[in-house]
Structure formats: structure tokens, C-alpha cells
């Protein structure tokens, strides 16, 4: 990499490139070989952090098309399509998805491609495979496999490490085991097991620097403060429903309402009655907003049709008066959302 911008040291020129919006990088690569080398180099990601030009994007995978991810740029209301995930598992679903260090990680899961005669899920109910996506290189890479194959499990990032816990290894066997992944070393190590397991899917979220694991249908929450201390069991009385964390606060969609949940105290924020017939959507937080993405409409007693959706609705909760708005619809993905997470580049 030499002579990026005439008259400027390469270190200064790289910081100039770091200020260019991410979506323009494919065009910058066409300028010259040295620009391409700079764009695809590891130093650019560090430079973007240093100059304060890092961008917050959303990554989404839906039922249709198979194993395809899209990224959403909220500043430009723009969807970017990623290369197809090269997993051998068809219609990968029930996986964990997180991001750390500027990369997207897709972990475990199993096939949603069910044979209607046998019930066989494409030969794979739960896999141990792990994939990372580098948005700068625009390439998927297979990483070290998890210790246990699992699906429908909790998956979070704590202090740069990926934590997975619970889930199922087969359609009948739920597990309490947990493990931690170090992205820099590409290794998995076991960590203390959950205190309890349950015959239902579980999910995870991070609030106040602690991992919280929730099982569907249970009011208790299992909390991990740091690895050495193990898990504790708390009963916060949280409402059931889709959840999103925005600026450290937990929001729940329950009974047609968006509710801000603080331990045992619930505060109604705004109505969400228009989502009562919408199922299978993702709900996630980004900056001071809640995003409701995709899903399907119906059926009901008047209409048996099922309508896959690509719509994106946004609730801004950072101001004095919460308001709903709409963003650009997904350009490729539609229907039930299998995975959704933030990605900082």
C-alpha cells in the first residue's frame, strides 16, 4: 500500500478513507490497486474507530430467500445484500447471531426445511458450526466449532467474548451447558452450566454488563455477571413477548403495547396494536430506536392467506414523545425473521 493520495502520508490518507461511508467502499476499490489494498486491509477498521466514523448497521436473515443476509444502513435508509451464507445446512434457522470486533457471527442452529412426510429437518436439527462475516472483505469464513451442537439457545457478547447457553441438541433433549468463544484466538471453552434447563427455546440479552438468559414461558431469569462467578437465578416478573434493549433499557412488546421494563416495574410507552396480527418478526434496538422487521400477517378467521412481509417499522423512544415511522423495506429478504443483530463497522 503506497501513494494512496498524492502529497499525503499513507497514514493520513488512510484516515481520510476511513471517513468515507461504508456503503461506498466497493466503488473506492475501483480507483486503484493501492486503494483496493487499503479498503480490504485490517488497518482501515481500526482507523474508522480512531476517527469516530464507525457506523451502526443492522443485519437481518429471513425465511426467504434461503440463507441470505442483508444489512441496513439507517443513516441512508439503504439495504445492502451479503453473499449467501455457504453453510451445508439448508434453510438454516434457530441459530444464534451476534457481532463483535466488526464481524458478524452466525452460530449453531438447524434446518427449517422439514419433510412433511417424515418430519426430518434436512438431516440436521442442531449443528455446531460457526460462521463469521467480514463486511470489509465481504466474505464468510468458517470458525472453530462449538463444543456442543445446539439450536434455540441464548447467544450474547460479553466484554468481546461470545457466550452461548442452553438450547437443544436434538428435538427432545434440552441442555444446560454453556460455553465461551474468543474471536481473537478462535477457541471455545466450557463455562459454568445454567442452574436450570427447560423444555422451551431460550434467548439472551445483555443489560448493565450482565448476560440474562430467558426461557419462553418462565418468569425467572438466569444472570451471568462474570465468568468466574457462575449464574444466579432471579425472578424479575418481566412481561413475556419480543424484547429489545435501547440505550441500556429493556422494552417489551406485550398485548399490543410497547412497555419499558425496569425490574418489577412496567411502564407503558405507546400502543403497538397494529402488530397483533403480525408474527415471526424481529424486534431490536439501534441507537435510540426500536426496529420491528419483517414477519408474516395472518391467517385469521376472515382470511386464511399468509402474507410474508419485508416492512420495517421504527419507534423512536429517545425523545419526549415516542413516535412510529417507517423505513425502507428489505429489498431481498421477507417473511419470518430467523436472525437479527447490530453490527458496528
UniProtKB/TrEMBL annotation:
CDD domains: F-box_AtAFR-like. InterPro entries: F-box_dom, Kelch-typ_b-propeller, Kelch_1. It comes from the Eukaryota. It comes from Gossypium mustelinum (Cotton). SMART domains: FBOX, Kelch. It holds the Pfam family Kelch_1. Residues 8-48 form the F-box domain. Keywords: Kelch repeat, Repeat. SUPFAM superfamilies: Kelch motif (SSF117281). This is F-box domain-containing protein.
Amino acid at each position: 500500500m503506497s501513494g494512496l493520495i498524492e502529497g499525503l502520508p499513507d497514514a493520513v490518507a488512510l484516515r481520510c478513507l476511513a471517513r468515507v461511508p461504508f456503503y461506498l467502499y466497493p466503488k473506492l476499490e475501483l480507483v486503484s490497486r493501492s486503494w483496493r489494498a487499503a479498503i480490504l486491509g485490517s488497518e482501515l477498521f481500526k482507523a474508522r474507530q480512531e476517527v469516530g466514523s464507525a457506523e451502526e448497521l443492522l443485519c437481518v436473515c429471513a425465511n426467504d430467500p434461503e440463507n441470505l443476509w442483508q444489512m441496513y444502513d439507517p443513516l441512508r435508509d439503504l439495504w445492502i445484500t451479503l453473499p449467501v451464507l455457504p453453510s451445508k445446512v439448508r434453510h438454516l434457522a434457530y441459530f444464534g447471531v451476534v457481532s463483535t470486533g466488526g464481524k458478524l457471527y452466525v452460530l449453531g442452529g438447524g434446518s427449517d426445511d422439514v419433510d412433511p412426510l417424515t418430519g426430518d429437518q434436512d438431516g440436521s436439527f442442531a449443528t455446531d458450526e460457526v460462521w463469521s462475516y467480514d463486511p470489509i472483505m465481504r466474505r464468510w469464513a468458517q470458525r472453530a466449532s462449538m463444543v456442543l451442537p445446539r439450536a434455540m439457545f441464548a447467544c450474547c457478547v460479553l466484554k468481546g467474548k461470545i457466550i452461548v447457553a442452553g438450547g437443544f441438541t436434538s428435538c427432545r433433549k434440552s441442555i444446560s451447558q454453556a460455553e465461551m468463544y474468543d474471536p481473537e484466538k478462535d477457541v471455545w471453552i466450557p463455562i459454568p452450566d445454567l442452574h436450570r434447563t427447560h423444555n422451551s427455546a431460550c434467548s439472551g440479552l445483555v443489560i448493565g454488563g450482565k448476560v440474562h438468559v430467558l426461557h419462553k414461558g418462565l418468569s425467572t431469569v438466569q444472570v451471568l455477571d462474570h465468568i468466574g462467578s457462575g449464574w444466579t437465578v432471579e425472578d424479575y416478573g418481566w412481561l413475556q413477548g419480543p424484547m429489545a434493549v435501547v440505550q441500556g433499557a429493556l422494552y417489551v412488546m406485550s398485548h399490543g403495547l410497547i412497555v419499558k421494563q425496569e425490574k418489577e416495574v412496567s411502564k407503558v410507552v405507546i400502543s403497538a396494536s397494529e402488530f397483533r396480527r403480525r408474527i415471526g418478526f424481529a424486534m431490536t434496538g439501534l441507537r435510540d430506536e426500536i426496529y420491528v422487521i419483517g414477519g408474516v400477517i395472518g391467517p385469521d378467521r376472515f382470511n386464511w392467506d399468509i402474507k410474508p412481509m419485508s416492512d420495517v417499522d421504527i419507534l423512536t423512544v429517545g425523545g419526549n414523545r415516542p413516535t412510529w415511522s417507517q423505513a425502507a423495506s428489505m429489498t431481498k429478504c421477507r417473511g419470518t425473521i430467523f436472525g437479527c443483530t447490530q453490527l458496528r463497522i
